[in-house]
């Protein structure tokens, strides 16, 4: 459940920081915050396999590393394949008594670029093979690390450096690829959308994703002041608005059943979310209306689906 | 003394991998490597090989998953060919840059386009710069023996580099050859369990694969280059210890009737068998011809090659790969580089043959030697000559 | 400070063996504003702490969250998100 601060007591969380201070993330980086929160739950018994991208670059400039857990970076499109190897390797070595006993969280991390585009094949393969790992996609909606170029995760109407708005262009002129839907089609036991603006929700979902056997997936909206062109103190507010307007609905799919986290009958108008972001500045009223319509219809679709799934025959998803 | 059996060479490699007690295989099938990986899959399914077999969805993921398994300390193997090797290209550099001792068998096959499933050396010759130890087998026995050696070389703490064992696609991979199969006990005695130097382990967190700024990148590459150069000594050591244990000797370069030869044929791989017959016949006819087969390709055996070839009047290099619009075949270009510093050096005539599975015949070797003699007499006329092309 | 080690002195493959060595990086140097806490308004809820992308806040003995000025980049998220308006951003140099 997305929480209000009165119900959520951050100071009771483990103080250890497994993503060290001193990383080179931009001021106010939503993605780094998301990973920091994920690692708070994951704990030290974790191995992270990173794709090339913002998080990899800012955390590993030799000789500085922000990682206080074991970490490996191989290439851009293969975080899930490397994680498959790590997971399988540990399993066989533990069986042979050549690796310390006990559960190790294997987490693959990729941005939207390394997951939705160049990394989609490896992700699909790893999910299909049912490796026991968690894939965390930190989605800042463009190839931010290389200079804000568009990805398939860039929302319709956003201006990026390779889909710039202009006289002849609205910016990104195709809809955002629905990555959670693609992941759900692999029939994995658990996937969820999350946002660091809702830390308790994100951390609860991380806990579930790590504890459930088999492949699990978290899609984390990661507001990016640099690429979204909003004020550097606004990442949390942007994430909140994304959720409250329905642009980024928070939900879980547990054994194929959709559970909407916040059923908002009335949502904030989408313009509240778009206005503070420079990447949407060029949008005209009718385009914003179109976005509003799309957000509304998708949200209603999710509400309907959640209602159906709650009534569907067969065992209900266990309540946590 | 091992048990003498007849076995398809692909399966001999699988046997070696099984005897090596590999922990993890991540592979994607591609002709003509398929028998290797299918056999391994069966071995795992039957409980004969206690390993994880990751049925990856592409060769790029195969090499990536191998990086993952090797990074946690698993003895790791994969195999591929042609397009699959090309697809892994990016990760090959990373595997050696990260110093992960992965062993890979390649059933050398031609590269598209046009599509060819048949053998030549273009796939691996396009990967000379990847920083891996690379060797070529000529026979099934060699394929079996060298695969075992590859694990010992790769995992040596002085090396820690991924390693390739090449076999000719179809002409070696799919033929049944007589060979001595060694016992599990003997292999266990000779090839101990892999003890990794650095692994991903929560007890001792490390960061593998960081960003290397210009201030340090050169130094890390130097480290890598020296590891590959210095692996030469380890290769010789391992082959030496292999001979002591199993009775079969291997050297970086194999010479056949080359000591007093005027013209030496230099090549790599299974066509050496045909070349030897041609050499014998030409010798009977009074020609002083010899053969030098290069077994170790990386690190390049400079001294051995100079010793084996410097005394000849001419070297006829037979390449089964071609750098279009360039200096011809890789074996020839590298040999020229190798011989260049010598005061007295032979003429090096480069020939391209056996592309895309085309047979290299005894007649072809006669042609090659004759053309080389022409070059000796009247000088170079071409950068290289393509043999057997219909013009 | 330029790294002048020779190639032999680097760990193999440039693997970093010291976890969290980034902590030596003075990212506090980046900021133009810094957060200042007003204790009388602070209820020690920890929201500022959980929202800091740089883990640049830490709980002191009294339970207040102090700013790690060596690392704080001055993004201002803590000030914005504080439910009690107990944190204000002040220009560096003041």
Any chance you could write out the topology, listing elements then pairs?
The complex is a heterotrimer of chains A (320), B (391) and C (94).
Chain A: H1 30-42, E1 46-50, H2 54-59, E2 71-73, H3 79-95, E3 105-111, H4 112-117, H5 120-128, E4 134-139, E5 165-166, E6 169-170, H6 179-184, E7 190-194, H7 199-211, E8 216-221, H8 225-228, H9 235-244, E9 251-254, E10 257-260, H10 270-274, H11 285-311
Helix pairs in contact in A: 1-7, 3-5
Chain B: E1 3-8, H1 9-19, E2 24-26, H2 34-45, E3 52-54, H3 59-71, E4 76-80, H4 82-97, E5 103-108, H5 122-125, E6 133-136, H6 140-155, E7 163-168, E8 176-181, H7 184-190, E9 207-208, H8 214-246, E10 253-256, E11 263-267, H9 272-284, E12 289-294, E13 296-298, H10 302-309, E14 314-319, H11 330-339, E15 347-352, H12 362-378, E16 385-386
Parallel strand pairs in B: 2-3, 2-4, 4-5, 5-7, 6-7, 11-12, 11-14, 14-15, 15-16
Antiparallel strand pairs in B: 1-8, 6-13, 10-12
Helix pairs in contact in B: 1-2, 1-6, 3-4, 6-8, 9-12
Chain C: E1 33-37, H1 47-50, E2 57-59, E3 65-67, H2 77-81, E4 87-91
Antiparallel strand pairs in C: 1-4, 2-3
Question: How would you describe this structure to a colleague?
Answer:
The complex is a heterotrimer of chains A (320), B (391) and C (94). The relative contact order of chain A is 0.13. The longest helix of chain A is centred in the last third of the chain and has 27 residues, at 285-311. Residues 1-6 of chain A have low confidence and may be disordered. Chain A is of the alpha/beta class. Chain A has helices at residues 30-42, 54-59, 79-95, 112-117, 120-128, 179-184, 199-211, 225-228, 235-244, 270-274, 285-311, and strands spanning 46-50, 71-73, 105-111, 134-139, 165-166, 169-170, 190-194, 216-221, 251-254, 257-260. Chain B has 391 residues and is an alpha/beta fold. In chain B, the strands form 3 sheets. In chain B, strands 3-2-4-5-7-6-13 form a 7-stranded mixed β-sheet, with helices on both faces. In chain B, helix 1 packs parallel to helix 6 (140-155), helix 3 packs parallel to helix 4 and helix 6 (140-155) crosses helix 8. Chain C is mainly beta and 94 residues long. Chain C has a single domain (26-91), classed as Alpha-Beta Plaits. Chain C is built from 2 helices and 4 strands. In chain C, a hairpin with a 5-residue loop joins strand 2 (57-59) and strand 3 (65-67). The interface between A and B is large, with 48 and 45 residues.
């Amino acid at each position: 459940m997305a929480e209000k601060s009165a119900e959520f007591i951050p100071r009771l969380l483990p103080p250890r920081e497994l993503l060290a201070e001193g990383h080179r993330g931009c001021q106010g980086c939503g993605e780094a915050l998301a990973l920091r929160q994920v690692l708070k739950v994951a704990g030290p018994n974790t191995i992270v396999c990173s794709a090339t991208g913002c998080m990899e670059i800012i955390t590993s400039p030799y000789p500085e590393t922000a990682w206080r857990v074991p970490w490996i970076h191989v290439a851009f499109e293969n975080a899930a394949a490397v994680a498959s190897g790590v997971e399988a390797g540990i399993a066989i070595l533990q069986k042979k008594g050549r690796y310390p006993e006990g559960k190790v969280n294997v987490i693959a991390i990729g941005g939207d670029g390394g997951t939705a585009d160049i990394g989609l094949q490896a992700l699909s393969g790893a999910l299909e093979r049912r490796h026991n790992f968690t894939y965390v996609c930190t989605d800042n909606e463009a190839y931010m690390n290389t200079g804000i170029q568009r990805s398939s995760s860039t929302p319709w109407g956003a201006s990026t450096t390779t889909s710039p708005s202009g006289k002849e262009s609205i910016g990104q002129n195709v809809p955002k690829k629905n990555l959670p839907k693609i992941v759900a089609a692999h029939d994995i036991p658990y996937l969820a959308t999350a946002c660091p603006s809702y830390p308790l929700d994100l951390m609860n979902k991380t806990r579930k994703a790590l504890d459930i056997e088999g492949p699990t997936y978290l899609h984390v909206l990661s507001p990016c002041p640099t690429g979204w062109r909003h004020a550097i103190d606004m990442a949390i507010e942007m994430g909140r608005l994304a959720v409250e307007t329905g642009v980024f609905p928070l939900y879980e799919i547990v054994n194929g059943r959709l559970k909407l986290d916040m059923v908002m009958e009335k949502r904030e108008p989408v313009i509240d979310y778009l206005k503070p972001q420079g990447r949407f500045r060029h949008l005209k009223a009718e385009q914003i209306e179109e976005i509003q319509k799309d957000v509304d219809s998708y949200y209603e679709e999710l509400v309907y689906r959640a209602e159906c799934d709650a009534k569907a025959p067969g065992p209900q998803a266990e309540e946590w | 003394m091992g048990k003498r059996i007849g076995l398809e060479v692909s399966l001999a490699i699988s046997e070696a991998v099984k005897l090596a007690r590999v922990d993890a295989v991540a592979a994607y099938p591609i002709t003509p490597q398929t028998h290797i990986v299918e056999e391994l899959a069966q071995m795992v399914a039957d409980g004969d090989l206690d390993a994880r077999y990751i049925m990856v969805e592409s060769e790029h993921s195969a090499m990536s998953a191998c990086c993952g398994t090797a990074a946690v300390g698993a003895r790791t193997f994969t195999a591929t060919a042609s397009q699959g090797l090309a697809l892994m290209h990016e990760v090959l550099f990373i595997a050696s840059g990260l110093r992960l001792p992965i062993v890979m068998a390649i059933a050398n096959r031609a590269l598209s386009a046009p599509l060819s499933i048949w053998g030549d050396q273009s796939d691996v010759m396009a990967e000379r710069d990847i920083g891996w130890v690379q060797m070529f087998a000529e026979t099934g026995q060699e394929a079996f023996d060298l695969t075992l050696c590859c694990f010992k070389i790769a995992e040596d703490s002085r090396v820690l580099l991924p390693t390739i064992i090449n076999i000719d696609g179809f002409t070696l991979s799919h033929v049944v050859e007589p060979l001595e199969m060694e016992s599990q006990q003997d292999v266990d005695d000779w090839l101990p369990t892999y003890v990794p130097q650095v692994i991903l382990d929560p007890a001792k967190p490390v960061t593998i694969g960081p960003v290397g700024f210009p201030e340090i990148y050169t130094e890390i590459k130097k480290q890598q280059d020296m590891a590959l150069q210095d692996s030469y000594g380890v290769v010789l050591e391992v082959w030496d210890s292999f001979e002591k244990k199993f009775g079969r000797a291997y050297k970086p370069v194999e010479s056949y009737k080359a000591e007093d030869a005027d013209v030496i044929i230099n090549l790599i791989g299974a066509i050496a068998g045909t070349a030897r017959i041609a050499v014998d016949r030409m010798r009977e006819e009074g020609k002083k011809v010899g053969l030098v087969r290069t077994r170790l390709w990386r690190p390049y055996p400079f001294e051995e090659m100079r010793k084996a070839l410097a005394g000849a009047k001419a070297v006829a290099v037979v390449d089964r790969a071609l750098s279009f619009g360039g200096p011809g075949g890789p074996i020839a270009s590298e040999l020229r580089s190798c011989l260049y510093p010598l005061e007295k050096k032979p003429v090096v005539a480069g020939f391209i043959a056996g592309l895309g599975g085309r047979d290299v015949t005894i007649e072809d070797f006669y042609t090659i030697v004759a053309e080389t003699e022409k070059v000796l007499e009247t000088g170079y006329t071409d950068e290289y000559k393509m043999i057997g092309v219909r013009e | 400070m330029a790294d002048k080690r020779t190639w032999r002195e680097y760990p193999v493959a440039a693997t970093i063996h010291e976890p969290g060595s980034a902590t030596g990086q003075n990212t506090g140097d980046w900021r133009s504003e810094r957060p200042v806490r007003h204790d009388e308004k602070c209820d020690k809820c920890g929201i500022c702490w959980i929202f800091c992308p740089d883990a640049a806040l830490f709980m002191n003995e009294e339970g207040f969250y102090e700013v790690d000025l060596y690392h704080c980049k001055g993004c201002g998220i803590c000030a914005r998100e504080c439910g009690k308006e107990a944190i204000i951003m002040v220009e560096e140099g003041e």
